[in-house]
Structure formats: C-alpha cells, structure tokens
Amino acid sequence: MREFSRISGLALLGGSVGLASGSATAATGSIAIVSGGFKWFINTNITFQTTSSNWGFSEASGAAPVQTDGGGTATLNDAFDGAMGWHVQHPGEADHSVGGYNALGGAVVAPSSPQPGQAVTVTGQPQTLQGLTVTGQIYFPAGKAVARSTLILHNPTAVAITVQVANYNNLGSDSNTTIVKTSSGDAVFDSGVDNWVVSYQNTGGVAVSDPIITLAGMQQAVAAGYANGDDNPYQVFNVTVPPGGTKRVMTLVQLSATRQAAIASAPTFNDMASMRNAGYLADMGPAELQSIANWTYMAAASDVQSVPGLGGAALVALSGLVVVAAGSRRRKNLQVDSQS
C-alpha cells in the first residue's frame, strides 16, 4: 500500500528540475529532479510521521524508453513508494515512526535552474531533533542515475550527544522483491558485512517494468535488514556528535535499466575512494568526508599539500590522516576530531 499519493502537475524546467510553485514551501513529492535518465520525486515539508515517507523519495521513474531485461524497450516506473527516509531517535527507541526528519518549510535546489547533465543539490530546512540541528541533503552527481542522501547532524551544545540514526525505505516491489547481488558476492544480505544490495521487482518473467535498485551504505549499521519478499530495507546507526561538532550519515541509491548494468556498476559503492573517482562525492571536501560516521574515510592525493615553512618535501594530508616528513618513509596516524 502506498504511504502517500503521487503529486501531479510537475513542471520540468530546462529538462532538469521540476518544482511546485514556491519551492521553499514545496509539498509532498513536489520537487522533481531529472538525473541519469530518471525522474526523482523528492518529499519535503512533510507534516505527518511514518517510517519511510519523510524527507526522501516518494517515487522515481524513467525519463524515456530504454532497453530493458529481455531485449525490449520500456519506460520504467514505480521505483519507490517512499525511500531514504531519515529518523533521529534515542538509542533503543521502539517506535520507529517517531523522530522523522521532515524538511518542514521546504527545500532549496542549487543551482536553481540547472542545465541538463549538471550536478544538483537539494537541501532541506534545518530541524531540531534530540537536541541536534539536523539538515537533510540529496546530491545528484552530474549525469549519473545516482542520488546521495546525507543527514547532517550538528551539536550546538557543550556536551556530546549520542543518537540512533535510522534510514527506512519502501521500494515499491512488495512481495516480489528479489535480491540479485550483494557486495559479498552472493544474493543474500548479511548485516554488518554487505555494503550494497541490488534488487528488483520480480514478476516471474524476463522483462521488468520497474527500475533496478541498488542501495549502498549499510556495512557499518548496528542493525539492518534486506530480504527477498520484503520491500522495506532499513539501516540503523549509532552516532555520537561531539560538543560543537558535526557528523554526517550517508546512504546512496542507484537506478538501472537492467540487472546486468546494476551489477556491473555496484562495486563503485565498495568504498569512498571508488565513489570519489566516480564523482559521487565531488561536492564534499576532506573535512566533510571525515565527518561521515558510517563510511571509512580514505584520503585522496588532492588532500595533500606542502606545509608552509617546512620546505616543499614535507607534505601533510589536509584531512589530518597522514604526515610524510622530508627524507623519511615513516607514516604516522593522527587522531583528529571531525568537525565542520
């Protein structure tokens, strides 16, 4: 059963972005982004509490006919019935419908009138949850059928705050949900082991009518679920935000026209280095990447520069992870508090 209805009358601006009138107070599902050949409909200004129908996606569908499994062509549709919904709760909270991030007041699209193939960022309004200032952000890498959903948690107080951050989904594939591949190589999701899962709506034939879905960012969850016959995968993370500091929790979703294409591209979600190379993290600097609580930070060559006053041979990673002294091969790990 759908948790919300589709919103009609979406206007596509420049083939890239659709906004209901007055985007700052847009209604449920009323922001549409075209990226990587798919239309993504984003929830904002949600005024009720459920598990998956908060900030996130109400729906996604193909922007044009494509070649699908079975050799035919079709315009794929009905990717989600609510996905990437974020919740910030007390650790051990039993009621999973509370603490939802709803982006009350709407969201901002940047750039406001993007060109086709341009990266787009949609940022929700700040909301106070469990004493933290919480902001949702969805990033669409240029020309990719990928959306990266990040929940930004800022602690304005003088004491550390520990919360449980959950991400809930309704993929719309109902009892026909079928896993075809996981990051460990089989078709069975193992909590704490697998970081990504490819699944689809299996209606018994070769052809499919819905986009193939890849979800990523689950490996470091303290609890997670993804199973055949259940279209409600979820991930739960324990996050401690230091006084005055900022932490982030990040998950990604990719839509594909065929199972083969989804499986071939899924290893890009294996680690942060692969995602940086693919452009999925192009808008984030080292400090922001270090603040992500559920991914292991991996420094890039671009994070390294000369240290003023120490000579060109002395290099320091801006992330604070690695120092290489002149004339020495020794590397030293540094403990740095992630704040931004």
Describe this structure in words.
The protein is mainly β and 340 residues long. It has 2 domains: 12-284, Beta-galactosidase, Chain A, domain 5; 301-333, no CATH class. It is 6% helix and 37% strand. The protein is built from 3 helices and 24 strands. The protein has helices at 259-265, 272-278, 286-290; strands at residues 12-13, 17-19, 31-35, 38-43, 56-62, 66-67, 73-74, 85-89, 107-110, 120-124, 127-129, 132-140, 146-154, 161-168, 177-182, 196-201, 212-216, 223-227, 230-241, 246-256, 304-306, 315-317, 322-324, 331-333. Strands 9, 10, 11, 12, 13, 15, 16, 17 and 20 form a 9-stranded antiparallel beta sheet that branches. A 5-stranded antiparallel beta sheet has the order 1-2-3-4-5, with no helix packed on it. It has a 4-stranded antiparallel beta sheet with strand order 8-14-19-18, with no helix packed on it. β21 (304-306) and β22 form a beta hairpin. It is globular, with a radius of gyration of 20 Å.
